[in-house]
Design brief:
3-stranded mixed β-sheet, single chain, 3% strand, mainly alpha, 12 helices, globular
Length: 322
Amino acid sequence: MGSGNDTANAEFLLLGFSEEPALQPLIFGLFLSMYLITVSGNLLIILAVSSDSHLHTPMYFFLSNLSFVDICFTSTTVPKMLWNIQTQSKAITYEGCITQISFFLLFAVLDICLLTMMAYDRFVAICHPLHYTVIMNPRLCALLLLVSWIISVLNSLLETLMLLRLSFCINLEIPHFICELNQMVQLTCSDTFLNNMVIYFITVLLGGGSLAGIIYSYFKIVSSICRMSSSQGRYKAFSTCASHLSVVSLFYCTSLGVYLSSGVTHSSQSSAVASVMYTVVTPMLNPFIYSLRNKDIKAALNRFLGMAGITGTVVLRLKTCP
């Protein structure tokens, strides 16, 4: 399949996790449940933050954006997989695959950028509390978010354009539930040296740079907390970071686990299973981590759900009135 036209008209097969027909309803039900929990949980976080004026702070501004990105991140992959299981078809067009990869990369990098900005926000709040409102002003928060979108869009465009220059072989089976960039590159008949170099460089630059920034922020945070004389102050400072630290650990540990497991086992099937952790499970758990460990979020959710319940009761009574 050497010509560009043949490649453009090609169809890829997403093999998923298992070809056993008996397991398909179980996989469908499991992923549908996780997707609905992810969307509803993150949507509740967004609504709680936007409806409560007490949460109109930089930390919750970034958290609501993270919840929005998590919804989009999961929505680029899971609905297509559920559709394939329901229709008993594994096919995805070349254009569909390229589109899925571009949006997947976009929201994955946005996730990384937002986690880094949240670490910086905690660093300023704990290490420079007197200057927090001056440093983390609304203009800077909006600028940081804009820069994150620009970086993510440029990265997605670069990776997608690098992929479009490749021609693909006859075997177009992807042993994954998504069109994963590395798997796509392995299927090509073209020289992939430049593509691999770009992938490694961007991974080190964005992934490694982000992780280094987060580690540095928490190193300074821990140093600042250790210098506090009050044990109550230390506990309060640490509790403000606990949720974010849990999310960062979950995201990076699962991401590293995917690459380490694929490097050790050389099994694409095991890599696909491991990928579920950071593509589906992590976005699903984020709302639980922030709501269970954060009194402000729990209070805002209770107020929001209480208001929604009162509004629903009033609407029902109005409807029943003659």
